[in-house]
Amino acid sequence: MARRAAGGTGAKRARRPEPGLPALERFEGGGLEPDGDYDGLEFRETDLTGENGAGARFMDCALTGCALDGTRLSRARVLDSVLAGVRGVGTNLAEATLRDVEVTDARLGGTQLHGAVLERVLIRGGKIDFLNLRSARLKDVVFEGCVLVEPDFGGARLERVEFVDCALKGADLTGATLVDVDLRGAVPLEIARGVDRLAGAVISTAQLLDLAPVLAAASGIRVEG
Questions:
Q1: What pLDDT shows up at residue 9?
Q2: Are 94 and 114 in contact (CB under 8 A)?
Q3: pLDDT at 2 over 80
Q4: Per-residue pLDDT averaged across 70-86, rounded?
Q5: Average of per-residue pLDDT across 203-211
Q6: Where is this region: Disordered (predicted)?
Q7: Which of 83, 200, 210, 220 is the most exposed place for a label (fewest CB within 10 A)?
Q8: Residues contacting residue 84 through CB under 8 Å, at least 6 positions apart
């Protein structure tokens, strides 16, 4: 059910983002605007709680230590940008596009990314609870040194996605499509639902043994004695 990529060399490696930010100007605005255009700005310790930036474009921006509780960023485009130490509950990024983005040491809960497109994204450190990635498309995405609690990948497509030294707890893979997904660095690796969708992933021997009861149950195999 879980396999190595052709040739036995494991999954293809994800391409990591290289934002390379220019000199930034400090954001002095009073808040976000729907369909706003933010280019070359630094948001430092900015309280964006409840702000509405739906459809906005962030290009070559840095968000450092910002509060994102209930921030509305649906259909936003975040390009060549860095998010460091952001925190918040219920941030809405549904159908957003994140391309060439680094997210470091985030503390987020209930983040909505359903229907979003993530390409060349690195999520390093921090903890994200109840991440909603249903029907999202992830390509060249790396989760590194972070804790993901009950992430929902239902119906999502994951291509060249790596989990490196991170915890994956209670993941939902129902209806997901995996292509060159490397799960070997996920400790623990806990699949709550959708274990039958692991075709296209690479796992370790130890992980296979840990998942054996779930795999058996999903296949209708009774293990006795």
A1: 54
A2: yes
A3: no
A4: 98
A5: 90
A6: 1-35
A7: 220
A8: 62, 63, 64, 65, 102, 103, 104, 105
Residue 85 DSSP symbol: S
Amino acid, res. 218: A
β 147-149/166-172 pair status: parallel
Q: How far apart are CA 5 and CA 200, in angstroms?
A: 7
pLDDT at residue 221 above 90? Answer: no
In three-state secondary structure terms, 12 is coil
Residue type, 177: T
Q: Are 135 and 114 in contact (CB under 8 A)?
A: yes
199-203 mean pLDDT: 94
14-to-11, 38, 137 alpha-carbon distances in Å? 9, 28, 14
Alpha-carbon torsion (52, 27, 37, 85), positive or negative: negative
The whole-angstrom separation of Cα 127 and Cα 108 is: 7
- What token pair was written down for 165? 């030294």
Whether residue 102 has pLDDT greater than 80? yes
End-to-end CA distance of the chain: 24
At a CB cut-off of 8 Å and minimum separation 6, what does 221 contact?
Answer: none
Q: Write the DSSP string, 21-54.
A: ----EEP--SS--TT-EEESEEEES-B-TT-B-T
**Whole-number Cα distances in Å, 225 to 66, 218, 222:** 55, 19, 10
Retrieve residue 117's tokens.
Answer: 């497109």
**Longest CA span, the chain:** 68
